Amino acid sequence: MNPVDSTAAPLVLRCNANHVVTLTLNRPQARNALSTELIAALQAELDAIAMDTSLHVVVLAGAGSAFCAGHDLKEIRAAGYAPEYAEALFEACSQLMQRIVSLPQPVIARVQGIATAAGVQLVASCDLAIAADTARFATPGVNIGLFCSTPMVALSRNISPKHAMQMLLTGELMDAATALRFGLINTLVPAAELDAAVDHLANKIASKSRHTLTMGKAAFYRQAELPLAQAYDYAKDVMVTNLQIQDAQEGIGAFIDKRTPIWCHGANP
Fold first, then answer.
1. Same domain as 165, residue 50
2. The CATH number of the domain where 130 resides is what?
3. Considering the chain, what percentage of its residues have pLDDT values greater than 90?
4. Angle at CA of residue 191, ends 190 and 195, nearest 5°
5. Which of 21, 162, 230, 247 could join 209 in a cystine, given CB atoms 3.0 to 4.6 angstroms apart?
6. Separation CA 259–CA 269 (nearest Å)
């Protein structure tokens, strides 16, 4: 067994500020490729954040010039393409993407450079995404004989089927303007303005009731899985429950009284 290098830099950097936590993938020398260890480190951070009621918004970023280049192909080759290794790797990655979706807090992708394969999967799994004009996106697995099947799950739930198939079948690198047109990202800004744009969006969301954000995010993904009539029945029940929460009553009162609401972030009246 190799000894643990206590001097090694953390695989995920964490910074908390004003109810917003930023997680930065920290393998810049590997373009933040999702090694087994990086997936585990990010999963652990998200699991801890899910339990922290002081945090309202998560920003996911990448260190260096790339956001995330997908899976670590060198690690995959070194493992001899073993089925047991591949099963564990792709299961862990799938659980990570589902953790982002199920996280109580909204997650914003901050994309400054390339996002390819599972890196696109990360962007598509986040609730929102802001990209610099230097960002590039691709699902290039088809170019190396390994179709981007797991990235396809998140991608096909974000953009139209024909746009998703275009990305998956061609493997071509597309610019941020095309990603915006496809609906993969919310906003495109000059690279020099990326941090300011992400901070503005994150702080704007973080200023809302945390309980309302959590309830709303969960309801959004749940209703999307249901037939229309069931979705309305479910959403109706969510609205009734939401109305009984103190923050909703405070917010309505503040709106009527023309004042700024004072959130308690979920306590019942």
1. yes
2. 3.90.226.10
3. 95
4. 105
5. 247
6. 19
